[in-house]
Write a structure and sequence with these properties.
The chain is of the alpha/beta class and 340 residues long. It folds into two domains: 180 residues, Rossmann fold (3-Layer(aba) Sandwich), CATH 3.40.50.720; 121 residues, N-(1-d-carboxylethyl)-l-norvaline Dehydrogenase, domain 2. Helices cover 47% and strands 11% of the residues. It is built from 14 helices and eight strands. An eight-stranded mixed β-sheet has the order 3-2-1-4-5-6-7-8, sandwiched between helices. Helix 1 packs across helix 2. The two termini are 40 Å apart. The structure holds nicotinamide-adenine-dinucleotide. Nicotinamide-adenine-dinucleotide binds next to helix 1 and helix 4.
């Protein structure tokens, strides 16, 4: 594979066009790639196309893309036929989170793609080192872990398994910037990767606080929204500690860490919801209850929010200060940067 090619010259094979696969497809199309979509479940092909079209319609209405949906759809082929994947230079798998299903899918992909094709999985939690055993060239296999909806979010983890070639991971890292991502390289395979490990540490503590009756579900959400929510999109974790006094964190950690939940299993709060068939906004029963109208309005509001938070994230990228300094270069006493 020629690593200097532009996205327009790199056909991407997208396997599994469910919720995530459809939004990853949109991300690839708007980044300029031709996309060969394969939806393994034949009866889902039509609905997948409709979903992609709907994402593109909204992206056009919101000004995320410069061309009408037809311009992007012209670069998409969609079928249930794995043989169409032949020309793909990068394949992204996003089928159901089930090891056996993924094994069957990778066996099929492996049979039809070229010897230099990069193969990747959007698995949420299966170790990449396990999945890469299902293909003939494991050194070209990686995790590409996206966040829904993949065409508006900026998160992307590039995960190396035990046998992955680091130089190809570095290439994907650079390419991901052309996908408008702020990529994260996971140098060594670890269950849950980076983003989910951080989030699950917080889910565990949140479940613990409510289960032990320290606060309500709603108030824990309020604390999270108004503490983490006010700094994380700008500075993350470590820069936040740099900003606010490392010494104090060190002192508090010594006292607080032993009191944090280290539960080894999901607690009764979430177990009860799951056992009773609760599925959150999808069926109106979760940590909160939703009427049909509330469900719809929450989904609409969240969809709007994904565009608003994207604007803010683009205004304050990880290198906002570096960019400001470059802009001010040459002046003796830099004025406040126009970026800031
Ligand atoms: N939903 C998220 O926010 C999210 C985030 C990151 C990663 N993921 C991961 O992405 C992958 C897909 O998740 P999703 O949320 O899009 O799920 P989904 O249910 O919307 O889509 C699942 C896809 O798998 C296909 N499928 C189902 N049964 C199959 C079978 N027997 N053989 C082949 N294909 C089959 C479906 O047709 C569909 O294309 C999973 O590995 C999931 O863990 C999801």
């Amino acid at each position: 594979m020629n690593y200097s090619m532009e996205p327009g010259e790199i056909p991407v094979g997208m396997v599994g066009l469910g919720l995530m696969g459809s939004s990853i497809t949109v991300c690839m199309l708007i980044s300029g790639h031709p996309v060969i979509g394969v939806e393994p479940v034949s009866e889902n092909v039509v609905i997948s196309f409709q979903r992609i079209r709907e994402y593109l319609d909204i992206a056009w209405q919101k000004g995320l893309v410069s061309e009408k949906p037809e311009a992007y759809l012209a670069r998409l082929t969609l079928s249930d036929d794995f043989d169409t994947l032949g020309p793909a230079k990068i394949v992204i798998e996003s089928v159901k989170e089930d090891l056996d299903i993924k094994r069957q899918v990778f066996n099929k992909i492996d049979k039809v793609v070229g010897t230099d094709t990069i193969i990747s999985s959007n698995t949420s939690a299966i170790p990449i080192s396990d999945l890469q055993r299902f293909v003939s060239f494991p050194q070209r296999f990686f995790g590409l872990h996206w966040m829904q909806p993949a065409h508006t979010t900026r998160f992307l983890e590039i995960i190396c398994g035990e046998q992955s070639d680091r130089s190809i991971a570095d290439y994907l890292y650079k390419l991901a910037e052309k996908w408008d991502k702020e990529p994260v390289l996971v140098k060594k395979d670890i269950r849950g990767f980076i983003g989910n490990r951080l989030m699950y540490a917080m889910y565990r503590e949140a479940l613990h606080l409510v289960q032990e009756d320290y606060a309500t579900v709603e108030d824990v959400d309020r604390a999270c929204r108004n503490v983490a929510g006010y700094f994380i999109p700008m500075v993350g974790v470590f820069r936040w500690m740099d900003f606010t006094g490392i010494g104090a964190y060190y002192t508090v950690m010594k006292e607080l860490f032993p009191t944090l939940s280290n539960a080894q299993a999901p607690n009764a709060l979430i177990s009860k919801i799951v056992e009773e068939g609760g599925n959150g906004v999808f069926n109106g029963k979760g940590f909160y209850d939703y009427t049909e109208e509330e469900r719809r309005l929450w989904e609409e509001a969240y969809s709007r929010f994904t565009y608003d938070i994207r604007e803010l994230a683009l205004k304050y990228p990880h290198d906002v200060v570096k960019k400001a300094l470059q802009q001010d270069e040459g002046s003796d006493l830099p004025e406040q940067s126009t970026l800031l």
